[in-house]
Amino acid sequence: MIQHVLLALVLQLLVVAVIRSWAAGAFTAAAWVISREITQAEYRWIEHLGNGLRANMPWWGGLDPKVWTRADPWLDWIVPTLAVILAALIGRRFQKRRKSGLRSGDAAP
Question: Membrane-spanning residues where (predicted)?
């Protein structure tokens, strides 16, 4: 799970570096970890319910509650998502402080 958090934060920082948006970075990283876990759930569905054949899986197979019975997959997307949201809130706060600090510094004689 720590690796997922670190990868999500790195992805978020890359997006922030390119487009200067903490929210976009958080959305991108969260979408990545969520889609990764849904993909893993699809593989579990194929293995356990689809006789090993992808063709047997319905379009909603990765969202089937039958393949989300353990805590690990849930934590593997929830914890990184919360981490990037927290990083975005902190990053925006520092960004606002920095901008307001520069403005007040400019006003000084």
Answer: 74-91
